[in-house]
Amino acid sequence: MANFVDRVVLHLRAGNGGHGVASVHREKFKPLGGPDGGNGGRGGDIILRVDPQVTTLIDYHHSPHRSAPNGKPGEGDERNGAQGQDLVLPVPSGTVVTTRTGEVLADLVGEGAEYVAAQGGRGGLGNKALASPRRKAPGFALLGEPGAETEVVLELKTLADVALIGFPSAGKSSLVSVLSAARPKIADYPFTTLVPNLGVVTAGGERFTVADVPGLIPGASEGRGLGLQFLRHVERCHVLVHVIDCATLEPGRDPLTDLEVIEAELAAYVPHGSLGGIPLAERVRVVVLNKADVPEARELAEMVRPDLQDQGYEVHIVSAVAHQGLKELTYALAAHVKKAREEHLVVEPPRVVLRPRAVDDKGFTVRRETAGDGEVFRIVGERPTRWVRQTDFANDEAVGYLADRLNRLGVEDALLKAGAVAGSTVLIGPEDDAVVFDWEPTMASGAELLGARGSDLRLDERERPTRAEKREAFHGKMDAAAQARAELEAERRAGRWTEDD
Predict the structure, then answer these.
(1) Residue 212 annotated as part of some ligand binding site
(2) Annotated binding-site residue? 454
(3) In terms of CATH architecture, what is 1-156?
(4) pLDDT tens by residue, 378-393
(5) 485 has a pLDDT exceeding 70
(6) In terms of pTM, does the model score above 0.70?
(7) SS3 call for 302
(8) Is the pLDDT of residue 198 over 50?
(9) Is 194 labelled as part of a ligand binding site?
(10) What angle, rounded to 10 degrees, do the helices at 396-409 and 411-418 form?
(11) Which of 73, 229, 256, 290 could link 18 by a cystine bridge, Cβ 3.0 to 4.6 Å?
């Protein structure tokens, strides 16, 4: 088990988005050239991708916590921050991604198949991107969104056409070794096989794979032995082969009883019905009576063969050690596999359909709740929550901008309809990390006292006179000066001014 892991729980944290920056362009003779703050970079995603070179999940067993890089913050001179690099986690083909509750998120089959398990946060906008004809000089920028944090369960379910199942030491590993080039560990004690062994078998023009599933015992579907850990590897197999030991010396064991016990465990195991294409109970069954090189085992196999055939099973008597009956078994399995492939030509993993909300979706709700310290109003919605995460509450202008956005969205009207009054407690965001406001119907900040939000009188284009206005003002000054000189000259001629002797 140290070298093969087929189930792990991953704790993933995608990269945070970089913050936008508030900056003003400055150069010689132009100290206030307008906003030039760049946007923050997007945080890196965490992507699960099938890699044919990977055959186990052992790397994630030792390191289950994975994080993607964060996006870089923006800079002045309209320089956007670098995006965080996506973190790609290679997984084997046949990996099923589920939640803790068992909901299937993705079934990764085939080289290159991938699934975005955790999405990086979006970068915040700089004040250059926030500028508009009505908001010429934003003195704030938006913060980057945090990356998604989640837990996913990875389960590896072997991709094989034929599964060999049976009690420990029934000869499954020996059968795989003689049917294919696989070399599994073989010994004369129970539970020799601790991992599923795969072998490729060629019979005529048909080529198929055989999986040796570790031994099952009574109660395997309830967690006894190793069966529960590896029953998932039979879910994708078209043909189930019961390998029965006819030479066992254990008391209470015989071929018919062994078959009933294993069938009961298969019936008790509840797989995910969509992964293998057909329900487990409807798979083709083949019974292999093994170890026929022992005279007593051969005699027992011949004795129980009619009874098994009467039950509807196809029965083969073989000896993996003496290579008896293997050719007939191989061609019979190839025929079953070919038929199954023809009946299920399109066996595709379930496609996960993502239906993201529209960009202009304004959906939100206001819930009236009772908390320990009184009544509160909780705003639930993707856009209000995202806007709150992007707001720098240390900046009064940014808080005012948030108030404007919420007001345009209709949050204030909804609060009034829900019964909120001035001073009511309003929560925006997830229940475990909400932002608390003491609501006022009209939110204003000190920045509005200087004029419209996002404006700067020093950058107002209307304060700069045109050439005609400058010419008119110049001529007005010259005319006023000439008039003043004429009045002084008239007063002097009238004798109002006297010169000292």
Answers:
(1) yes
(2) no
(3) Distorted Sandwich (2.70)
(4) 888 888 888 888 888 8
(5) yes
(6) no
(7) helix
(8) yes
(9) yes
(10) 70
(11) 73
For the chain, domain boundaries: 1-156, 162-343, 365-461, 465-493
The answer on whether 292 is annotated among ligand-binding residues is yes
Query: Is 116 annotated for ligand binding?
Result: no
**Is there a binding annotation on residue 259?**
no
Asked if residue 312 belongs to a known ligand binding site, the reply is: no
293 is in an annotated binding site: yes
What pLDDT digit, counting tens, does each position of 102-130 carry?
Answer: 888 888 888 888 999 999 999 999 989 88
169 is in an annotated binding site: yes
168 is in an annotated binding site: yes
**Is 92 within any annotated ligand binding site?**
no
Specify the CATH number for 365-461; select among 1.10.10.10, 3.30.300.350, 3.40.640.10, 3.90.25.10: 3.30.300.350
- CA dihedral of residues 23, 27, 30, 34 (deg, nearest 10): -20
Q: Which two tokens stand for residue 179?
A: 């049917």
- Determine whether the annotation assigns residue 180 to a binding site: no
Q: Is 4 annotated as a binding residue?
A: no
Q: What is the DSSP string of 43-86?
A: PPPEEEEE-TT----HHHHH--EEEPPPPPPPBTTTBPPPPPPP
Higher-confidence residue of 11 and 182: namely 11
| Residue 214 among known ligand-binding residues | yes
460 is in an annotated binding site: no
